[in-house]
Design goal:
Number of strands: 15
CATH architecture: 4-Layer Sandwich
Number of domains: 1
Strand order of the largest sheet: 3-4-5-2-1-15-14
Number of helices: 8
Helix content: 10-25%
Radius of gyration: 17 Å
Shape: globular
Oligomer: single chain
Largest sheet: 7 strands, mixed
CATH topology: Deoxyribonuclease I, Chain A
Structural class: alpha+beta
Distance between the termini: 11 Å
Length: 263
């Protein structure tokens, strides 16, 4: 079983002080896709290139202490791609793709961090620009290779994906336009929401993010913002899923899916 984890770190330095590496050592994923590294290359050098025996590959934001994604893996990739050829968002460090190619197979594992629009209209418009640019990128990639994209998508797709859906219908993350984008990706786009393939009906158990305000975590007032999105052939290999909530490394929880897959 190939264990693939996705986790928004909310800062790699913060997450490691809260026990992330101990958890990785015990859990033993083959690969973990991380988002919101909030560090630069010099911060990572000599400290975070490896975690629990996994080697990291990163795409850092130009702005210090902001965004940044990475993929830690036990397996040496045949190629590493950073950015998706969109200048505005490549500067924000939002895309790392590891390729594991053989003569008979082209396979990618991707860590992606979608923008949040919650800080105001300007960032919401940026989020829409990201979605408009990212969809054709994924469709072109799907025409060339199999892939699993892990990441903080910053969209709760359906009513079951957040606790208070009625009161959030005008809030970023649950806006009709965002949800329609996700629907298009999973229908016409042909990608698969792997967690929902395995757990089509879960509600309260599916959340991966909780606001730091009030008692949201204690009361499980959460959102499902973290996804595995896969091409159909890889999605069909998914066997197990687990959202780990016993220890809090971040405001997000790690989601791990086991695939009947060998790199």
């Amino acid at each position: 079983m190939f264990k693939l984890t996705s986790l928004n770190l909310n800062g790699i330095r913060s997450a490691t002080t809260k026990g992330l590496e101990t958890w990785l050592t015990a859990h033993q994923p083959d690969c973990i896709c991380v988002q919101e590294v909030k560090a630069q290359e010099l911060d990572v050098a000599g400290r975070f290139e490896h975690l629990a025996g996994l080697r990291g590959h990163f795409h850092f934001a130009q702005k210090k202490g902001y965004s940044g994604v990475g993929v830690y893996t036990r397996h040496e990739p045949s190629d590493v791609v950073t950015g998706f050829r969109c200048e505005e968002f490549d500067a924000e460090g939002r895309y790392t793709e590891l390729r594991f190619d053989t003569p008979s197979r082209k396979l990618s594992l991707i860590s992606a961090y979608f923008p949040s629009g919650s800080s105001g209209p300007e960032r919401q418009e940026a989020k829409y620009r990201f979605l408009a640019a990212f969809h054709p990128h994924l469709m072109a990639l799907k025409g060339e290779r199999e892939f699993i994209l892990c990441g903080d998508v910053n969209i709760a797709h359906q009513q079951a994906d957040l606790k208070n859906w009625r009161s959030n219908q005008k809030n970023s993350g649950f806006l009709p336009e965002e949800r329609a984008w996700m629907t298009s990706l999973l229908t016409d786009g042909g990608l698969v929401d792997v967690y929902r393939r395995l757990q089509p009906d879960t509600t309260d158990a599916c959340y991966t993010w909780w606001s730091n305000r009030g008692q949201a975590y204690a009361n499980n007032v959460g959102w499902r913002l973290d996804y595995h999105l896969a091409t159909p052939a890889l999605a069909a290999l998914a066997r197990t899923e687990h959202i780990y909530k016993d220890v809090k490394f971040s405001d997000h929880a790690p989601i791990t899916i086991g695939y009947d897959l060998s790199l």
